[in-house]
Every structure is written in structure tokens, then in C-alpha cells.
Design a protein that fits this description.
Radius of gyration: 23 Å
Largest sheet: none
Helix content: over 70%
Distance between the termini: 46 Å
Strand content: under 5%
Shape: globular
Number of domains: 1
Number of helices: 25
Structural class: mainly alpha
Order of helices and strands: HHHHHHHHHHHHHHHHHHHHHHHHH
Length: about 500
Amino acid sequence: MSEAKKSREPRMPKVWEALITLGLLIAVLAVGIVIYGADVHVPMFCGVCVAAIMALYLGHKWEDIEKMMMDGIYKALQSICILIIVGILIGVWINAGVVPTMIYYGLQLMHPTIFFIATLLICSITSLATGTSWGTMGTMGVALMGIGFGLGMNPGMTAGAILSGAYFGDKMSPLSDTTNLAPAMAGTDVMSHVKAMMLPTAITYVICIIFFGVLGVTQYHGGDADMSRVTEFANALNVAQGGVFHVNPILLLPPVIVIVAVAMKMPAIPGITLGIFAGAIVGLIFQPGQCDPGTLFKYGMNGFEFPEEVDAMLQASLSAETYETMNELLESGGILGMMNSVAMTIIAMMFGGIMEGTHQLEVIVNQLKKLAKGPAGLVTLTEITCVLSNMTMPEQYISIVVPGRMYAEEYRKMGLHPSVLSSALEGAGTVTSALVPWNTCGVYIRDTLSITVPEYAPFAMFNWLMPVINAACAWVGVTLKDMDNKPYKKRKAAV
């Protein structure tokens, strides 16, 4: 009897068994996303099923597998809560005129002689304000590509500046889904994550400003730009110019409050919630007639949308391109608008929980970590894994989730703060997705900006430099932190 019981005990997986699970996940994702153009959710769930079947094969009971999935989801609950709260914040901030004000002042930076830098800054501001690189590229990016053509600029250079700004904002904005997903995978909070990214991101961004500044000086040929679309869009935002929102510098106060909250080390949930209430207050003051408690509740839940009479006015007064830009950029947010990301996080963590609970990740990491020499080597290996994930599992979410769960325990063993891992995940997983032609991001950019990856990739400076600078900072040691979030000191071998 004892022998029978012993035979039913779960066993450690072999490396080839763990690779089968991971390989089948890659195959399902490739078929579903690349061939059939499906969203990542169902193919990822198929990966969960494969992982569960392998767990049963290894001798685990279903009750234990279910607990593994729940444990995985539990680790991401803070991220899920933040995503929901961020959805409310975006809906409230748009209704209150906060996001439109940020975009309006960003558009004032546009000038032909500094086109590339202006493009970089406008996309940075827009992406920071909205938390989405895709939304930025699909709206402001499309408009800026048209302006670039009018100026006689190289379209690849223009696209490179758009991507650099869009991914900077996506990477650093607390409103971004990837900015919340990465710390969830690593086991830290979003504020610690953002702080950990600041130095390498700032270095990379300064290099980008210099790079695009030089390009602007050398490539501008004095062509006549059609600035009418930019002017039309800016005017459509400002009531004083016949637009929709009352633009006022005081409306920039809510994001300043959130930034100060980050600097004061306030936890993410109360910090973002403070931004919601600040946005609601200024909205009630500065947007009379279109912002009231009822609209705040409505748009916080469903996301902002223009009232029918306003929508009809915009459609009648704006060009088709500007009207579409207004709708795509500003009709967003809300709790329901975040459910796609929430669902993705839950399903991904179900997979990660099984892979972790059955030790399938452990046996793979045990082989890979032989390549890493010390903490800096581990950071570099993490980034390489993220890049390979973007190439083999063509979805940036997966390039954060899988390496995050693979290496989390190894970072803990080395005594590194989880934010070191989350910074590596975002510094490579998020930004390099745009450089892979068959990745969902590469496909989206191709279809949106009408330009191929080989054309814009040489000029997507932020996307290339970010993982390199992040790894370099780790090797120098300036971004390595211990579990107490203090400068990391190499452990002495026990005598």
C-alpha cells in the first residue's frame, strides 16, 4: 500500500518535459496570433491546458493544480486592482479635461525646424497621459507621419521618433498595462518599479533627444508642411478655439499630484486614487455642463465617450481624419476598458502558477542560469530571454510573463530586490516587441503607420538602446538593489 502511495507522489519534471510545455505554448501562440490573427487570451488558455495536462502526467492531483493556478492569480491581485483603478482614472481624467489639456499643450511644441524632437516629445506626453503606445501610434502617430511627409522627412526616421516617444510613455506611465504587469510578475509594487526604471530610462531618453535633434538638423530640407491637421486637432480640444474642453494649466495638477505621490513613496493604490479625486474636483470646476458626478460615475465605469450632440458637432466640423483621431484617442478608459488586460493577466498567471508549482520553470532556469555570472549577468540573461520571447512567442505580454515567472526565484536567491527584475522585464520585453516583424506590435505598427519594421527599426533608437543601457547600468552596479532596496553588495562566500 505504501508503495502504491509512493508511486502516486508527484515527481520533478525532466528538462525535456518542461520544454514540451513551453514549446507547445509557443506553437499555439504562433498559430493563433500570427496565422489566425486571434487575441492572445484563448491561445494562452490553451497553454494553461497543456501545462495542466503535463502536471497531471507528473503525478499532481487536480486539486493541487487548481491551487497552483489560484496562487499564481493571487500574486497578480495588486496589479489587477491597479488596472481597475487606472481604468477609472483614465475615464475621469478625460471627462475632467486633464488628458485633453496634456495633449493640447503637447501639440503646441510642434514646429518644422524641430520636427523629430517635437514628435518624440508629443508622443511621449500622449503616451504618458494615456498609458498606451498603441493608442498613441494609432492617433498622434498617424497625424505625425502625414506631417513628416509634408516636411520631406524620411518616413523611417519619423516612425522611429514616434515609436521612441510612444514606448517611453508606455514604459514609464503608471497608467500602462505593461507598467503594472511587470511588477506583478516580479513581486513588487508599481511605484518601486517606476523608480527602478528612472535612471536607465532617463539616460536612454537623453540620447534619443540628441539623436533626433541631430537628425532634424541634418535631414530638414525646408519643405512646406501642412500643419492644418495639427492645428485643427488642437483647436478641437479647446473650447476657446471652438473645441470641446476648457483647457487650463490648473488641469495639469492631478498628474503632478500623482508624480509627487510617487516621489513621496505613497503606495500605488492610494496614490492613483488620489489622482482620481483630484481629477474629479478640477473637472467639476473647469468643465461645467459636461462634467458632473453622474458623468464621472458613468465614464469611470464604461470609459469616456462624447455625448451624442458633441459627437455630431465634431463630425460636422472636423475633417474625417481629425474626427477619427479624436474618437480613437479620447474615447477610452473605464473599468470595462481594462477588462481585456485583467483577463490576460489572470490567464497568464494561471499558466505561470502551474509552471512554477510543478517546478517546470525551475528545471529550465537551472539550465539557463549556468550562463549567468552574478547579478548583472542575471539581468542580462533576463533581457535576452525577453527578446527571444518576443521572437518566439510574438506578444509583448508573454515576453514579460514567462521570463518574469522563470527568474523571480533566482533574483530572490541572489538577494536582489524584485524591482531589479521588473525593470529588466520592461526594459527588454516591452520595447523590443516593436522590432520583431511578426510580433503583434510589429504587425500593428506596419498596419497603422504604413511602414515596415526594416524601414523604421534603424531609427527606433529608444527601443534598441533601452535593454542595452539597462544591462550596462546593472554591470556598473548603479541599478542593483538588495531586498531592502539599498545598493546591492556582493555576498561573501560562507567560511
